[in-house]
Design goal:
Radius of gyration: 18 Å
Order of helices and strands: HHEEEEHHHHHEHHHH
Shape: globular
Number of domains: 1
Strand order of the largest sheet: 1-2-5
Strand content: 5-15%
Distance between the termini: 10 Å
Number of strands: 5
């Protein structure tokens, strides 16, 4: 479709370690309902505690719920939970086109994201993506806030500090390229080794009880209505 983002189904955003995806409690509730599973069956397997780099302080990683990469839900060259996919997955790459010109997006793109490198989005589609991203971002912010509060109240908030990766961090903050990708993977994997797994032993049960008794989030059906804004505006 001329002027629209064109997904190539390459799976880069689902498989590459350079595409970290935060998960909210709302995401977990929607995914577990879609799969017909108790949320505790997903935590520690398809969804784990992951290190997310602090953009303002690269040596610091906040530990949050996220998807391991390659994503365990990527099966048979497609997303097996597409209808219940996480909010951050729904937003990619539309939030980029909503906030940045094509030139900036291409400059920042890492190797392997041909869909982003090759798509030329016109202003008409960009406005649609901006509206879509604005709605989803509001939902994401609300769910992220509740997730952060839940993690803090239950003493699951934590972070790790890395030392000895000055060269890698310098590369990550430099011009995107293959070396950037390799440096990012090195520091994230090192950060993973510092996660105190035992601290999260009861997390699956705690999340399950919370979602069962308290939390109310947008449903997959409600988010599908938001997705309708992309109809005819996105080559999937």
């Amino acid at each position: 479709m001329k002027g629209a983002f064109e997904c190539t189904h390459c799976g880069a955003c689902c498989k590459k370690e350079t595409s970290p995806v935060n998960i909210t409690l709302g995401d977990i509730k929607r995914i577990s309902k879609f799969l017909g599973k108790d949320p505790k069956e997903l935590i520690g397997k398809e969804i784990k505690i992951r290190p997310f780099m602090d953009a303002e302080s690269p040596g610091r990683f906040e530990l949050e719920l996220g998807l391991p990469k390659p994503c365990h839900f990527w099966k048979d060259s497609k997303c097996s939970i597409y209808e219940a996919r996480p909010l951050n997955c729904r937003l990619f790459p539309f939030w980029l086109y909503a906030t940045q010109p094509d030139e900036s997006i291409i400059e920042q793109a890492l190797p392997g994201y041909e869909c982003v490198l090759n798509s030329k989005v016109d202003n008409d589609h960009r406005l649609t993506y901006r509206e879509y991203s604005t709605i989803l971002s509001r939902i994401l912010m609300a769910e992220s806030k509740e997730t952060d509060e839940f993690m803090e109240i239950n003493d699951y908030s934590d972070e790790v500090e890395l030392e000895g990766h000055e060269e890698d961090f310098g590369t990550i903050l430099g011009i995107p390229g293959r070396k950037t990708e390799e440096a990012f993977i090195r520091v994230v994997r090192d950060a993973e080794t510092k996660i105190k797994i035992g601290k999260y032993a009861k997390l699956p049960e705690t999340i399950s009880e919370h979602l069962k008794n308290e939390a109310k989030f947008a449903s997959s059906e409600e988010l599908a209505v938001v997705d309708e804004k992309l109809k005819g505006r996105y080559d999937s």
